[in-house]
Design brief:
Strand order of the largest sheet: 4-3-5
Strand content: 15-25%
Distance between the termini: 49 Å
Structural class: alpha+beta
Number of domains: 1
Shape: flat
Largest sheet: 3 strands, mixed
CATH architecture: Orthogonal Bundle
């Protein structure tokens, strides 16, 4: 289902700010901060107020259309959602974020944590870091040149 349909089915208009933010995030593999989104839209001739960017991100995240991910330096950014239950792996070199499916694979870990801590786990955030294939190749090529 398209993000436009998700908005409509939940009673929201496909407004200019929501459209601009979604189109920008869909065209970028790297997580973008609200300020980066604001600046990129301004530079592309689609100026929005920073408050409009935050409001659009808040709603889009609530509907699962965008996800917050954390860069290796700890800063948070947004990427277009992948639909369904998923997690992200972020390249430590280029910061490209890739979604991967998974929830059942964590069920035994969650059960063990609940048993050990007596907590009831209601949600989780799993994010992995590594070096993407493109950066691995570039790093290998750089070593060969030296």
């Amino acid at each position: 289902m398209s993000w436009q349909n998700v908005l409509s089915e939940n009673g929201y208009r496909v407004s200019g700010p929501r459209r601009y933010v979604m189109q920008l995030l869909e065209s970028n593999a790297q997580p973008m901060t609200p300020l980066e989104i604001y600046q990129a839209l301004s530079e592309s001739g689609r100026p929005l107020g920073i408050v409009s960017v935050y409001r659009a991100l808040e709603l889009l995240a609530e509907l699962g259309l965008v996800c917050m991910v954390y860069n290796p330096d700890g800063s948070a950014g947004y990427v277009a959602g992948a639909g369904g239950h998923h997690h992200h792996i972020v390249c430590q070199n280029c910061h490209r974020a890739i979604a991967f499916a998974g929830s059942e694979d964590l069920s035994s870990l969650i059960q063990r944590v609940e048993k050990e801590t007596k907590f009831h786990v209601s949600d989780h955030l799993l994010q992995l870091y590594g070096i993407c294939p493109d950066c691995q190749k570039a790093l290998a090529d750089a070593v060969e040149e030296n």
